[in-house]
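Fold this sequence, please.
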Amino acid sequence: MYTKYYGFNEKPFTLTPNPRFIYLSKNHKEAFAHLLYGVNNHYGFIELIGEVGTGKTTVLRTLLSQLNEVNYRSALIFNPCLTGVELLRSINHEFGLNSGSEYANELLDELNRFLLKENARGITVVLVIDEAQNLSPEILEQLRLISNLETENDKLIQIVLAGQPELSSLLDRPNLRQLNQRIAVRYRLGSMSMDETRTYIRHRMVVAGETGGVSFSRPALKMIHLYSRGLPRLINNLCDRALLIGYGDEQRRISAGIVTRAIRELLNARQGKRYSLVLAGIITLILVCAALILTSYYVRANEAGSGPAGKQTEKTSGSVK
């Protein structure tokens, strides 16, 4: 709707993952480095933990894009809410193996033959399971059995478990201690800083074809970071709504006021009126703090400019600095 008005070729803040829009913050780069290190050193199990919207899928897609077909065979499981047999069938299907059997031992034998063959060719096999916090203890135990497929010197398959913090709690259960002890590489993905949030927003607008038709004010960017807590998914959602409001108001400069309205709309849509009161309190606090800062600034400016004493004080303080 607003793309032509602002000069975009496409919407810059969609929620659907798009490889062209990938932006790796410091945390994302560190997470990617940990995953790649674990895979290349054949540690067997690797864990990636992150809150909803931190960009786990972005990191996983970046990892998979780096695993070339010459040296790696990879598979990604999106829906881990499966039975043991269904999981094995999904894994075999992703690797192009026979997945028609209804018996776990037959599926496991098929997978083992494949892994031995790839290992002999010097190929690293990688299995990535996203949203792994939804796995049942029985399925996690099935994955542990898969990881038992190994030679005397090497793990035949590298398994990346990516999920929300509940995954850590799940793995801490006593009955899963054998699996938990096998996880040699772990990384907890954090949120982006204020500077990274600003760079992230700019990056997505440039990729979408922005040519100067729209901009976000500094206070608007600060409010976006405050609301989103540096989480990419929340940033996308809020920026998209702010651009829509700006389009309706025929504003090419997205101000803090527009962002405030966007936050109010999102909160009303999701949570109801109770959160609007919380938002109003936050905005009031921000405005009060801003007023106090401005008042203090003008008082100091007036004192510094009020006669010889003030000028001498200003000169002295400058020399100390």
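Residues 194-304 form a domain with the Helicase, Ruva Protein; domain 3 fold (CATH 1.10.8.60). The longest strand covers residues 183-189.
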